[in-house]
Amino acid sequence: MLNPFKKSRTAYNNSSVHKQVERLRTPRYELDDSRTNGGQPGIVVTWWTRLLSAVVSGDIANQDEQYLAHQTSQDYLFNALGQGAWGALFPLLTVVCSQLVGIEQAGLFSMAFVVATLLLFIAQYGVRTYQVSDIAEQRSFSDYQIQRAATVIVMVLAGLIWCFFKGYTEPMFSICTGALLFRAVDGMADVYEGRLQQKDKLYLAGLSQALRCSASFILFTVVLFVTRNLVWASWSMGICALITLLFVSAPLAILETDKSVRIKLANIKDIFVQCWPLFLALFLYNLIDSLPKFAMEGTLSYSNQLYFNALYFPAHTILMISTLIYRPQLFKLASLLETSIHNPANKKRFGVMVLALFGAIAVVTAGTAAFVEFIGIPLNGFLYGVDFEQYRGLARIMVATGGLCAAIDFLYQLVTIMRAQKAVTRAYLISFAVSIPIIWMMVSFTGLNGAVIGSFSSILILFLLLISEYAVARIKN
Questions:
Q1: Over 38-88, what HEC string results?
Q2: How far is CA 384 from its chain centroid?
Q3: CB neighbours of 165 closer than 8 A, spacing ≥ 6?
Q4: CA nearest neighbour of 405 among 288, 279, 277
Q5: 3-class secondary structure, 263
Q6: d(C-alpha 477, C-alpha 474), whole Å
Q7: How far apart are the C-alpha atoms of 126 and 279, rounded to whole Å?
Q8: Which of 101, 241, 324, 472 is 20 to 30 Å from the Cα of 81, by its Cα?
Q9: Cα gap 4→30, rounded to integer Å
Q10: What are phi and psi of 418, to 5 degrees?
Q11: H/E element holding 213?
């Protein structure tokens, strides 16, 4: 099987020149149009052979790269595949759970996955965009790896503390720890996929993410179908993700990028310091987003978790599609901003590009609203086996919430690129402080309705605060 992304080699008569070319690690920007007569080994066999050869050589980090950089169309395609698999994973898991073990058990799993996903942001620590936009590589990849390993450990400890604090018993404790393992692996894999994006090989990062999510989903489904045991299914999902990290995500990033220099403790400390405002903002945002679910856990049955998440999935889809649109442009936005010092025209191009991406988010939101209105409500009823017609009004509110969430996430990326992350921490803190009493009171008074309306209100407050902070940052820059 021919690989269209492999680097082509130029034939030279002079053997010394040929050897010099063979040692070059800089990717060539063209597709391999070579043809061979014999059969080609499958991609799995080829990858396994390459990985074993690198391990046997004793220097896995100093191997020749085999895949091209700067593949814009492939970046969009495979990043969309990876983001789509990541974004669709939770909805599909809840559908499988509701069909195989019932609404109440599906709600139980939903809550466990929500907790694990919130803790994922401790592992990521807001570093991905900062890492990708570190074009000059002021911090080495080794620095980013050690920093990420530390935050993943903190994430796991925080998850265990939460389980004991909440007094989770079986099966909730084991389900939650299984989901926690999966998200911990997700957090660690993110630093390797960030490295690939930093080196302009986003399509490889997308393939890595897609493989992890799809393989984990398939194994989860098979195990749950055979055993009807959520604990076994949750842990099988986590173990599958760990295997893909060890044998695909990590070695792919190491083999396909330059060898990293040694770690520097000062750089690791600097990553923690520089990304602290980013982490705090991102964690608070996701905590605000999850507050309705935590409020419902204490007062309503677990079936309400399923209803809320089913209504929220269109909003999540808006965020996912919007991410597919603007994430491949982050490298270009960072480059425009960095070069605007010497070329003022690039600052205008940066502004135009930002407005265009905000417009794209608005279009995605409108399209999702139309889909939910005519197709989404009956589709939910079919997937979950519950009549969602009574929740049509709440579904409309959730779509609006999704549009605001996508805009907030994009603003967060922009602030990171502009290195003005400290300026927005106040907005997240204010929004979090205001959201707690609003959401808890509304859930206590009106149940699921209060959770949906409270979620929209808190996200709207955060959006208004962030847009004002972004405007101030642009004026200062």
A1: CCCCCHHHHHHHHHHHHHHHCCHHHCCCCECCCCHHHHHHHHHHHHHHHHH
A2: 25
A3: none
A4: 288
A5: coil
A6: 5
A7: 5
A8: 101
A9: 9
A10: -80, -5
A11: helix 202-227
Query: Which own/partner contact pairs does 370-373 have at CB distance under 8 Å and 24+ positions apart?
Result: 371/314, 372/314, 372/396, 372/399
| Residue 34: both structure tokens together | 């070579």
Domain edges within the chain: 71-286, 295-477
pLDDT one digit per residue (tens) for the chain, 477 residues? 445 455 544 443 444 434 443 444 444 444 444 444 455 667 778 888 878 887 777 777 666 667 777 777 888 899 889 988 998 899 999 999 999 999 889 999 999 999 999 999 999 998 998 898 887 888 999 999 999 999 999 999 999 999 999 999 989 999 999 999 999 999 999 999 999 998 888 899 999 999 999 999 999 999 999 999 999 999 999 999 999 999 999 999 998 888 878 889 999 999 999 898 878 888 988 899 899 999 998 788 888 888 998 999 899 899 988 988 887 788 788 888 777 766 777 788 888 899 999 999 999 999 999 999 999 999 988 888 888 889 999 999 999 999 999 999 898 888 878 777 677 788 888 999 999 999 999 999 999 999 999 999 999 999 999 888 888 877 776
The first and second tokens of residue 56, run together, are 């046997």
The DSSP bridge partners found for residue 6 are 67
